[in-house]
Hints:
Structural class: alpha/beta
Strand content: 5-15%
CATH architecture of the largest domain: Alpha-Beta Barrel
CATH class of the largest domain: Alpha Beta
CATH superfamily of the largest domain: Glycoside hydrolase/deacetylase
Order of helices and strands: EHHHEHEEEHEHEHEHEHEHEEH
Number of domains: 2
Largest sheet: 6 strands, parallel
CATH topology of the largest domain: TIM Barrel
Helix content: 25-40%
Number of strands: 12
Shape: globular
Distance between the termini: 50 Å
Amino acid sequence: MIAPRFGFTKHFQKERNTEPYCRLRKMFCGFKDQARARLLMDFPGSYVPIPLVQSYRSLRSVTHGLSILMYHQVGAFAPMREHRSTYCDVRRFAAQMAWLHRFGYSVLRLDDALDALAGRRPLPPRAVVITFDDGYENFYTHAWPVLERHGFPATVYLIAGMLGQPSHWFAADGRDTPPLMGPERIRELHRAGVDFGSHSVTHAKLTEIDHVAARQEIEDSKAMLEDVLGAPVRHFCYPFGRHDRAIVELARAAGYASGTTCVRATAQIGWDALALPRKAVSYGDSALGMAYKLHFKHAPKPRPGEVWGPRPGGL
């Protein structure tokens, strides 16, 4: 059998001689023929064979903890050099989800992942949560059919005050402003099993507004979305990833069970659920590039003031 076609990003090309990359090459292309493995993996458009049983067994022991994947838009986009973290080609997305399915990753609902991080249930091997920021209409047209095919749960973070509107903040960069999902679409997906969280009222950078305004963004968005869904909204995502300890505590006080950031790391048991790290999947990431991030990209790269890890005092 032959796996989907995988191209490589410039970023991935730079790291192809590093020790983690070599380990990944061994796992997914077999151990014996490293010359063929390099040929297959280092050239865009090559085909990667389905791994041998020994490679699959190696895969099982690599990742410890929970990886939360962060997506934004999924669709067909022209090649780009900038803002790549907010786009994912639908063909690559399909290959990434097929990879997770083929190699037996445990794709969890966010609520189930929180139970595992809190020690209320075992955290399964290769645990992954899939999240989408902003709530674009192209989630419904492109991402959801792929997720539904594999039976994968997902959490979509909605901007409560912009449902059904264009993503106007893109205009500042001269980009198109794709539409966000409206209330009827959101309720349809909710009935189909998609989980929804809050992404504030106006997509504000919460660390750049005053405390009262930040609290309103966090609290009001929860109430607004609960009115739309007729169900509790338990999860929050900090817009642009901007957060600090004070913003995290506002989200906790508002009654959210989790808060996700843009700090890159693998969440561990006992970590603060209101400051969970995520791993961004970008426009140029192939399925193998995504796997590389899942298994080896664990070093946090926070901005000043951003927090992650255990809650201070262990409370």
